[in-house]
Amino acid sequence: MEFYHGTTLNSARGIIENGFRPRGGAVWFTNNWDYAKNRAEQKARRKNGRPIVIKTELDGKKLRTHCGPGKVQIRGSIIAVNEHLPVQLLQSNLFELLACPIALAQWINRQLGLYSHNGMSQNHWGIVRLAHWMNNRMQSGTGNRIDRQEFFTKGKQWLPTCFNKMPFSPEVLPIQHVQNDTIEVNVLYPDTQEKPIQPVEVDVHYTKAIADISDQNPKRRVRGLQSLEKIGTEDLFDWCALHLEDESVDVICNALRTMQRCDDGYTAPILGYAESKNKRIRASALAALAKHDADEAERWFERGLKDSEACVRMEVARLLPMLDRLKYRTLFDIARHDPNPAVKRSAKKQP
């Protein structure tokens, strides 16, 4: 089944070279492209980079078998993996990715029909120099692109034995730029007998929280999410998204409320819950969307404040103090005229 991982271009290059490596958390995959794209855009804003979505085929059962117990969490459309996953690049004919030595060496060897053991090494001086030039060339200006002829000329200059053997001209060079900001890789499942070279020290509180969110008891799953929030894990929003398809309404509502308190979030995993017939879920979802959908915040506030259920109006009204009173005067007026006293009080609270 196809899954996606949202990241940045620079991180994608690191993934191509070193595989997916959990750093103080888990590696996240989802079969919702919009969710992955949201996640990539948020990372790009935080790191001032370019958003990239990595597409791959994953088998949940196979992952669990290879990674071992407790290493893989699967809930609905989301998979969290706490294990190193090597990768093989499928679409290696992308300029943006060839700007690192390992990907460039893979691409050249593929064009010449060679393998890693008898082809060009990623440490060859010409490979390193060409990759470094490409990286500098793309960063020399906003949206800068490398011309095919320019790439071919530099390749002949630094790697003549390779580029002179390539059976094509620059005009038909099979290199393209990333299409729709999505690239494809093949996950190479780890050898269960292989021990990690540098084991990562994991916080005992984090380990306990992960054990709790995997428990069969809904109260422990709620407690696990609360523990992750106290720890301040960077991927808290994703752990919450993992629990949106939980069988317990209490767990779902707790996840949505925790999302409201996250500094950063994405709308894609929440959208469907804004239509829920369960008033508690709908209330928490509308409030989470009002918090994280900067472009459509007014729309979600208005929907929540006009809901027929008082608990929905109260949940959304609770976030009104975060808005500018003059800019969103209409929303405050709706709340001030609400028949429920709690909603009225929220409209009068100062930020």
Helix share bin: 40-55%
**Main beta-sheet annotation:** 4 strands, mixed
Shape: elongated
Q: What structural class should be given to the helix and strand makeup?
A: alpha+beta
- Uncertain runs are 192-197
Count all strands and give the number. Answer: 7
Q: Name the average pLDDT.
A: 87
Protein architecture, described:
The protein has helices spanning 9-18, 33-47, 60-67, 95-98, 101-111, 125-138, 148-158, 160-163, 204-213, 218-231, 236-242, 249-261, 279-292, 297-305, 310-317, 329-336, 341-348, and strands at residues 2-8, 27-30, 51-57, 72-75, 78-81, 87-89, 182-187. It is α+β, with helices and mostly antiparallel strands and 351 residues long. The protein has a domain at 95-177. The chain has a four-stranded mixed sheet. Strands 2-5-4 form a three-stranded antiparallel sheet, with helices on both faces. The two termini are 46 Å apart. The relative contact order is 0.10.
